[in-house]
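subagent[fold] <- orchestrator: predict structure for attached chain, return tokens only, no commentary.
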Amino acid sequence: MPEKWGRGGMVGGDVVITGIGAVTPLGLDRESTWHGLLAGKSGVGAITAFDAADLPTRIAAEVRGFDPAAHFTPKRARRMARFSQFAVVAAREAVADARLTVDPDHADRVGVVVNAAVAGFDTVEAATRGLLAPVPSAPSAQFVPSSLTNMPACEIAIDLGAHGPVNASALACASGAYALLDARRLILSGEADVVVCGGTDAAITPAMFAGLVSMGAMSERNADPAGASRPFSADRDGFVFGEGAVVLVLESAEHARRRGATPYATLAGGALTSDAFHVSAPAPGGVHAAAAIRQAVARSGLRPDDVDYICAHGTSTKANDRTETVAIRAALGDAADRVAVSAPKSMLGHLIGAAGALGAMVCAMAIREQVVPPTINLHEPDPECDLDYVPHQAREMPVRAALTNAFGFGGQNCVAVFTEPPSRGEPR
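subagent[fold] -> orchestrator:
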């Protein structure tokens, strides 16, 4: 039997995606999420996580039907915050999809990079309520560790028995996309053969919503939840807050070949830039977002006209959608008129730390299946948003190269580029 595991040192070649898992408002696995996106289905509804009656925004993209008891022992479920539970379940699906077995003899060659934007916000808020109650209650012994940003990655490592590099970064809404770039570097540097990576968040709470309401950031279309998130439409009025996790298995193409895995796509490259402008508003003109797109495409060995599809950040806010459109045009030039652009947030809402990883999943699935999901709720053309946003219906089309944009508070601009795998191999 050929050796399947390396022993470090700089490696060349491609890094490929061999497994994908998801827990989202459209379903508790990859396939239900993907088919929901292609069908133009909305995962937005009235908030059930708390009583939002006094708030002007009473809708969210919640993960519904998730039962921790179906996945964890009672003891383990209690020690894990919701965002960690989502991540572990998505990771299990991704690893099974990749047909990956973590051999104890090579467990030090398997890493985990799973990022979050707001981490255990819900556990912090619940503990604070308990302390401030008329009859105070002390937080549990698990409160502090369960709230930490690195805990989803650590819980996944524990679940898999992975002893390689374990890392977590917080880049606001760019967190999930950056996890893939970080994982790719670990593989290319020879520090790991396989990295389980992605993003997660679960913070549909009273304080989070009250704060975002104060910012005027969220849609108030409470009477029409499914129509509330409408990226690039002239009548958009803010984003819809969501939750979920998307986790992917990355490995070197050579490692995947040796163990007989069939890749979805190649993670060809990426880029990270900073607006250095404002804590929540994008820089006017999208100059640095455009730089991230331009650099990511170039580092992937592509030209602007090689890009077939863009999974947009597309939040449904006035400023973001306008700025992203300008950035795409600035980065791709005339090729921008020919590229298909769609916004999954029109259906899933904003998954925050998981959003960029969801974008990676969409790009990989689009390359595998040669179809891209639509942007729903695009009812009124905006003259300042003038690209092809794949309105209303999924589109079958050749997809050889795709990129996902992920832009976060603080001016974080992260772009990841995906191409066809070195060999499509046998059908999955």
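orchestrator: received. Logging for downstream: The longest strand covers residues 265-274. The mean pLDDT is 96.
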